[in-house]
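2024-03-11 09:14:02 INFO queue: dequeued item Cytochrome c oxidase accessory protein CcoG, len=479
2024-03-11 09:14:02 INFO validating residues
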Amino acid sequence: MNNQIPVTQIDPENEPPTPGHGAAKAQPVELYASREKIYVRNVEGFYQHIRRYSLWGLMGMYFLFCWITINGEPLLYFNLPAREFHLFGGVFYPQEFILLTGFLIIAAFGLFFITTLFGRVWCGYTCPQTVWTFVFMWIEERVEGSRNQRMKLDKAPPSAAKIGKKSLKHALWLLVGLATGITFVGYFYPIRDLLVDLATLEAGGWAYFWVFFFTLATYGNAGWMREQVCLYMCPYARFQSVMFDRNTMMVTYDPARGEPRGSRKKQSDPRELGLGDCIDCDMCVQVCPTGIDIRDGLQYECISCALCIDACDDVMKKMNYPTGLIRYATENELEGRPSKFLRFRTVGYGAALLLMIAAVAFTIVNRSPIDVEVSRDRGGLYRMTGQGLVENSYTVKLMNKSLEERTFELTVGGLEGAELVTNGRVTVAPGENRAVPTVVTAPPESLDESRENIVFTISSDGDDPVRVESNSSFIGPVN
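2024-03-11 09:14:37 INFO prediction written
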């Protein structure tokens, strides 16, 4: 199927077409272009060093956190069957979903806040897609050689050397993908048990499925798709412009200084030649992992990795020109206008971020090790006992959120003469959600209304004493 349609395009250097000059030339525009492989040139520099440290740091945290334990408990572990989430020494449960919501809101506002200030630095330095892609690119360069060597290798006819290099590269990619998949599953399945069960074929079918799935996903995303994930699959690339303004720092090319571009001899004076500082070497294009030309202006494909800055600065040093032709700058700065670091949207995102951090921190610090929920039996209003007392039935649900077994004492108050008939001493295992049937009696003369308030108190002694109250209602005949 031909995916090209003719679209009239006008050369901007020529005058608009007139009846005397003839119609503009029709040129085909591809609507669906197949991916062209990008051969990224290796570059060293300040920002590349920052990326290398952040890359290995993030990879180290990903592969090590599932192995670390605190007081015998895993540092990060999501125990779905037991509905327990171990996070940095604390255990959280689905009943505390509000905390998960808070963490997600903090992440969102943090991303928005950083984007308003420094653009897509998340994409360039910390995004998992970028991290794994750079690891795969590093392996590719070590196996197949430099950019020119890789291009020659792909154009070369099949040979034993070519097949050997390609096979080794893909084997290493799959090995990294396998390690990634096993580690990911290790956050949901104890990693030490997982390795043994996988090796002895005793792991469950779902464990094998997810290891296989994430192995192929990592291999495909970081090895084959690469920039396609950033350009077509990641939603952040599409809505990032909403958070940009003329004071946002981003990777930019200075056209006032660089244009007109052109080649020249080393250390020659560009002003005498009527040229700008850009020597049109295309190094900024060759090092770009998304294959764009930063000199074309701001583009959504740019992930702010700053490799073009390192490449351009290296060229400028060799030409004995000032560095910074490509740099982190704002639109106002490029136009000679002052830039504002603090703006309304930046302050707004920052304030919302600090507010959410404070709220989540306050919730965690004041988090009770027990959740209590009291529900009155809806099967009947009340019963009269043989002693002439009014009796109500309740179900007290106790959730022990601590890491040790605890014994709780259940008492009742708030209504004169109210007493607990059932056993008020309950032992709950760590992480257990236990429902305790409870019966309360009260003399009818203490009831001024048909419905009176009653308070259940749950307390425990020990190293970490707890006291929690829960309100309910007591129903009986009107005195």
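2024-03-11 09:14:37 INFO annotate: The chain has a mean pLDDT of 87.
2024-03-11 09:14:38 INFO item closed
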